[in-house]
Write a structure and sequence with these properties.
Blueprint lengths: L4 H8 L3 H20 L6 E5 L2 E5 L6 E6 L5 E5 L6 H9 L4 E3 L3 E4 L7 H12 L1 H4 L8
Antiparallel strand pairs: 1-2, 2-3, 3-4, 4-6, 5-6
Helix pairs in contact: 2-4
Length: 136
């Protein structure tokens, strides 16, 4: 993966627990990309947030929402069906902000297996969107 120095600086600038979780989510994104042989994953700093982009997938962004919820957040492309599908699959397992974000409490351990699954769906979105669950 092509890394972005500004992303690492931003992730380390948050409160300790949030920073730790964001770095864990970043590592999960990298692992999922490697496991799925996604070689064009790029880490960039866009929209003021660490963002992960590849040709086969939908952009993922991660951040710390300090002003309102004080949550670690994975942002999904709101123009995709990812948020809707993740809600169908996981129900109230996750805490959502409409169909665009999944929120995590920095004081609670991350559900890594479930996060890896949603990352996999996002990074393979263009390959999967013709399937009934993700299709239009």
């Amino acid at each position: 993966m092509k890394e972005d120095r500004q992303v690492k600086l931003q992730l380390c600038a948050y409160p300790d627990k949030a920073s730790q979780q964001l770095l864990e989510i970043r590592q999960l994104i990298i692992e999922v990309a490697q496991e799925n042989k996604i070689t064009d994953l790029v880490e960039v700093f866009r929209w003021g947030q660490p963002s992960y982009i590849c040709k086969s997938g939908s952009t993922l962004r991660i951040d710390y929402a300090s002003k309102s919820q004080k949550s670690v957040v994975i942002y999904l492309n709101c123009k995709s069906r990812l948020g809707e599908v993740i809600k169908e699959i996981y129900g109230d397992f996750f805490c959502y902000e409409s169909n665009r974000a999944i929120l995590f409490n920095p004081n609670v351990e991350l559900p890594k297996a479930e996060i890896k699954q949603l990352i996999k769906m996002a990074l393979n979105y263009h390959k999967l969107k013709n399937l009934p669950l993700l299709g239009a």
